[in-house]
Amino acid sequence: MRPPADAIGTLALIVGVIASLIFIGVEAALVYAIWRYRASRNLAGQPATFERNRRLEIAWTAAPALILAAVFVLTLGTMAEINGAGVAPAMRIAATGHQWWWEFGYGGTKTANELHVPVNTPIDLDLTSVDVIHSFWVPELGPKMDMLPGTTNHLRVLARRAGSYEGQCAEFCGVEHAWMRIRVVAQSQAEFDSWLAAQAVPAVTQGGDGERVFFLSNICVNCHTVRGTAAAGTAGPDLTHVASRATIGAGVLPNDVARMRAWLADPQRYKPGSLMPRVPLSDADLDALAAYLGALK
């Protein structure tokens, strides 16, 4: 099957060509009428008129109807193609919208904001939301689809080439709607399998001040999960392998230790309205906590 975005692009091209031909035809008829019935040709001083041209009336009724019927049939075929009619998905991924970040579930493994898929593989996304209406849209991979609380919608995506694809929530969902970015990473099957296996591995206990701050502050563990530890919060993103992601806060900051520290010190500075509070920690504790999270790869 073709990538859904390719099918949509082909349909858009066909409709664009049809619309262009209609535009050229209408403008040509208008120019001809202006020239043919100009005042200088009307020697009698009376405007030219005609009526009851049944053939013309049938033509300008039947032609648009046939064109619309053809576009309708092509649209139905494209809709069936992008929905994967007759092609079973190779895998399913659960995608959940939050204010304002994305959660992706691969069976028992969860990650956030960064969706990984194998190339040339039809993937069905099971889309839902835990709060308000969101909309998943990565233009290079397919159409947009709403994510509704209490409802699961389905979207077929397929990437033909390896690389990164950028997307965005397409439904206004609050003050930080613009910072609800999507990053899709398409990889070879072997690279994807390696990535997924690494994501499924629980975090390794590190010891040290950073881990102590994370677990003893009674703040981080209330909202976040680090698999393999006692942290099992569900309000915020799973942090088991947070350092492996390219960005922090669904695209608001690049992911490195320095920016992680800045984010921990004052999330509202970078993403006003986000549900993560400012962490009341000393500079030394912030340094240690940022280093701990930066090691969770």
Structure notes:
By secondary structure, the chain is α+β, with helices and mostly antiparallel strands. It folds into 3 domains: 4-82, Helix Hairpins (Orthogonal Bundle); 91-191, Cupredoxins -  blue copper proteins (Immunoglobulin-like); 208-294, Immunoglobulin-like. The protein has 8 helices and 12 strands. The chain has helices at 4-36, 54-82, 189-200, 208-216, 220-223, 257-265, 267-270, 283-294; strands at residues 91-98, 101-106, 109-112, 114-118, 123-129, 134-136, 145-147, 153-157, 163-168, 181-187, 247-248, 253-254. The strands form 4 sheets. A 5-stranded mixed sheet has the order 3-2-1-5-8. It has a 3-stranded mixed sheet with strand order 4-10-9. Helix 6 (257-265) crosses helix 8. The longest helix is centred in the first third of the chain and has 33 residues, at 4-36. It is elongated, with a radius of gyration of 28 Å. It starts with a helix and ends with a helix. The relative contact order is 0.11. The mean pLDDT is 88.
